[in-house]
Amino acid sequence: MVGGFLGAGKTTTLGRLARGYMEKNLRVGIVTNDQAADLVDTENLRRQGFDVEEVPGACFCCRFDDLVSTIGRLGADEAPDIILAEPVGSCTDLVATVVQPLKQLYPERFRIAPYTVILKPGHGRRILSGDEQAGFSPKAGYIFRKQLEEADAILLNRADELTDREADELTELVRGVNADVPVLRISAQTGQGFDALVELLDQEGNFGRRILDLDYDIYAAGEAELGWLNSSMKLAGEREFELDELLLEIVGRLRDALGARGYETAHLKVIGLWEGFFGVANLVSSDSRPELSLPSHSRVREVDLIVNARVATDPQVLERLVSDAALKSAESRGAQVRFHNAQSFRPARPVPTHRFSEGAA
Q1: How far apart are CA 261 and CA 291, in angstroms?
Q2: Within 13 Å, how many C-alpha atoms sit on residue 219's CB side?
């Protein structure tokens, strides 16, 4: 299981790990997780050819039985050698509520790898240094810190974009939260550091031992400060347009609209799907640029779009801004938008199925 805050790079990391294991002739299954359905990550990984199942509706901790049954559906003909799991990016306490229950209830079925948590450099630097302009409240920052605190290893992502000094400073900030944890410098995009990561994950040992002292009231309040939106729609016009340009324009419009109102973006993803083509654009913070993480290199007349947005604002406001960005992007192409499903809400209080301490019966 690879954890980390929203926008940390979990999906890209899992995709790269899965490809590496498959090149070694190992069977790989992936389980994604979200507070709602229509998850961009699931479509993204499936379109890349991976065997993927999804646990929607709440975090793994609150859907533990669904997680176990979902794993059972992977590889219907032959069970995977390796399961890669991506929990919701706003969740923590996963060692006590997921790792320990798996170890203690299913000791013959699973061998548990080190629980790794990806550090998102932009928000990490601001939150861990106590910057008043971190963009999130102290309650959301509390979740960020607790995620690092329970990790067996921390993955400093986007290392290819950092100077050695910046990486060293981030490592020191991590030491202030989890003093003795290994810190690996990786790039999910380029593959830098992945040989060391695979070597770490292949280790045998008693992992998942860092049980948190966690205040669930603060945890629940921190999650509830994030507006959550999963929205699907179809955009269609009479003339062809560049799909990748559309995806970047929608993300760019949202970045400008959210930033102008002072709403911090935790993560924003848009996937465009049409007849075998797909592209993904995303934004990982309010002060970053829109990125085309998976280009489609295609021209289309119509496309199915899924937007996932996690932003520190009212979810109804978020839904309105997403609709506005889609409509304006369609208008500039002489196209129309037909909206399908929209789920906008604040996450409910987590109620774990199990919560074990290490070695509990």
Answers
A1: 21
A2: 18
